[in-house]
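Pasting two entries for a bug report.
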Amino acid sequence: MTRKLYFINIFMILTFCLAHMTLTHPATSYGQQKEVSEKASSETIYEADDSTPSIFARAWEGGIIVFMVLLILIVLSILSWAVGIAKLLYLNKLSSTGKVFIKSFWDSRSLNSLNGRLSEYPYSPIKEVFRSGYAELVRGSQMREQAGTNTQLVMNAAVDNLTRSLAKAKMAEKQKMERLLSFLAITASTGPFIGLFGTVWGIMGAFESIARSGSASLAAVAPGISEALIATAFGLAAAIPAVVGYNMANARIRALLNQVDGFSADFLNIVERYLVSDKAKPNSGSGASHHAEQL
């Protein structure tokens, strides 16, 4: 019995030692393998970072269509920034010169004297509206002279002609201020779709490559899709500045047009007051130059 217990104890000790050796060896091997794997992966990442291709190289790998789309979007983005900034600076300048002309308008002794000094003022929409309105006012004075009497019909016709002349000048200045805004609108609306076209084309090429290689793993799919998505990113890069520039320029143009409308209303009020006071005079002066100088 004692022998049996002795052999049983020896057997259990051997079994425990064998089990301990079996368990500790794989653990050490796994630890070594893990350390080696982490070291290799870090070296791979380091090498990958050193050899990361540029955006243009990745777009070229996506195909000639994706690369051409990328170039188009880069050009549109640069032009959008240039047009937007230039337009905002130009509109700010028009606003400041318009305020200067309005101040001179109210400080002038007469419209005739202000018209004689127009060349001293820089270009502004309000200045051009005044030029057009004053020219029409002179023509209205000539019409009154030819009519011979200051009838209500002649006065109404002169005021209506002056109103249409001011509105026409305003529309002409609006067209000048809105120049190149259509480019920003087109870029804002078509930029994302151009980028989406490049992305779809690139993904088609990526799936064709997967079909030829016969591998559908993430390592095989990711590079082609990432190269295709570059086009979408550049499409947004072209559209976003175009949208911002278009909306900011439109806001400035609306403010300038409101300024022109206020000036036109003041100009019409001055002319109508002059016509009413001139009609009340028993012997009003004759001649277009006489009427213009009295304003």
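Entry 2 (this is the one that rendered wrong in the viewer):
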Amino acid sequence: MVHVGERGPDRRQAVEAFPVADHAMHRPSLRPQHRSSRSRWFLFLPALLGLLTGCSGAGTRVIDLLTPHTAYTENRDIAYGDGPRRKLDVYRPVSLASDGKAPVVVFIYGGSWREGDKADYRFVADALTARGIVTVIADYRLFPEVSYPDFLDDSAAAVAWTFREIARYGGDPARIFVTGHSAGAYNAAMVAFDPRWLKPYGLEPRRLRGFVGLAGPYNFLPIQDEGVKEVFHWPATPLDSQPIEHVTSASIPSLLIAANHDTFVYPQQNTEPMAARLKDAGVDVTVDLHDRVNHVTLVGAMARPLRFLAPVASEFTGFVLSH
């Protein structure tokens, strides 16, 4: 049985992720104009730790606010469908290749299918564009406005927009990767492995170059989390709602990254079985498990000042650039 959700990591996980000495837990007097970016980060760590014991949205918002945004130019709030939640942002590397052949990542954030905002994940774009990767971060409709499977159509529509339009932004439509964290990794996995979602747009998963999932729920029946039960109509949730059920020998190359001690989306019942299913099908799959991060700080480790926690950014970009 798998507990799926993003209610925020427990304090033990957060303390392990941020080994800050007790004497640093006082309220500091901040004078940012006289401190380096790195020293400002360490002064904010205690407050950030507290946020990360609560909800992922607040934690990623603070991470984003404190991360430099110098590696890209951005085009924001581009409509890929109707309504305010069907918009995306495109981030182009400052050093974009003149031949318009940059790899492209579509990143879908998490939030238990109930919360999230693309503007809070510019730190992901910063990590990717610094390595020459054009990045698309898309909003999607959330519960209770919609429930399963409507948000999957939104994610597929964002990917379809990327195939049609990304060449205008210097990206290579032949090198598109679909990726995500937590609930967003679920959406991305369904688009990557289940052909039903791209089919209405005249596309197939094999057109994608690869899949990257961070702390993804791929195999979470029976559903235990009461909030997630509502989203997925439990107990009427179909078996084919699970990404693991759509793995075949034709599935695309995949990178699965998770926190060993994630207590919200258990890797032992999600990442590891998904990796085994891909491997058994003969699919190119890489698995990276980390000890010093939790469910939220796994994606947070992509931010420049938090990369000491785990090499998530280098694993992510290395996979994209090598495929």
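Dev reply: Rendering is fixed now. As a check, the viewer should reflect this: The radius of gyration is 19 Å.
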